[in-house]
Design a protein that fits this description.
Blueprint (H helix, E strand, L loop, with lengths): L4 H9 L18 H9 L4 E6 L2 E6 L3 E5 L12 H11 L1 E3 L2 E8 L3 H24 L8 H4 L11 H18 L8 E2 L3 E9 L6 E3 L1
Helix pairs in contact: 4-6
Length: 203
């Protein structure tokens, strides 16, 4: 679904402490939405456009610590102690959001991509039947995400390999939808560095 960069900007503001150093702005003033976002940035924030890359970041370094907290019990550790641990064991980074971009896709182009992707998805969904591996679905492994098939005989394992090979080939033909659209550009969010989540602590 198409989204406005302005809504992404509002999302970014809630994580403003997670952005880092940049020296200057360079933004097309003929794109009204990008110009509006630029004008609303807090002090120290910047948007910089390189060739085919747009970066949003702030003049402030951060420290990040990898820590898997998925399904972890509620921590009683204070934020002050967490920050001390991040500074002691984490690493300094340049947090940022990095987008690749292209001229804004027309609606007919988006519909074409959707139809092509839908056709590929139908073919992919039919592959387990084609290779007769539906009965080899590993429900336990699949419960962790995705569909996983497990064979016991060489013949079953060979069918699974052929299935995975064709599936990979088809997936490579999927076309990416833009994550956000401005007045003149379609943006694709490629990299997020420096945001706190279930695998990272940031200060």
């Amino acid at each position: 679904m198409k989204k406005s960069l302005f809504f992404f900007f509002l999302f970014v503001l809630s994580f403003s402490r997670c952005f880092s150093h940049i020296s200057q702005d360079s933004i097309p003033d003929d794109d009204k939405l990008l110009s509006k976002v630029k004008s609303l940035l807090p002090d120290g924030w910047s948007i910089l456009i390189y060739e085919k890359v747009l970066v949003i970041q702030k003049e402030e370094l951060a420290y990040i610590l990898y820590e898997n907290r998925i399904n972890a019990p509620v921590s009683m550790e204070s934020r002050e102690d967490i920050n001390k641990r991040i500074l002691a064991k984490g690493k300094m980074i340049v947090p940022k959001y990095v987008f690749s971009y292209s001229p804004k896709l027309k609606q007919v182009e988006i519909e074409t991509i959707k139809n092509q992707n839908d056709s590929l998805l139908q073919i992919i969904n039919s592959l387990p039947k084609k290779y007769n591996i539906e009965c080899l679905l590993d429900k336990f492994a699949s419960s962790k995400g995705g569909e996983h098939y497990t064979g016991t005989t060489d013949e079953e394992k060979d069918r699974i390999k052929e299935f995975e090979k064709e599936k990979k080939s088809l997936l490579e033909n999927f076309k990416e939808f833009p994550d956000y659209n401005t007045e003149k550009y379609s943006l694709y969010l490629d990299i997020i560095i420096g945001m706190e989540d279930q695998l990272h602590l940031v200060c």
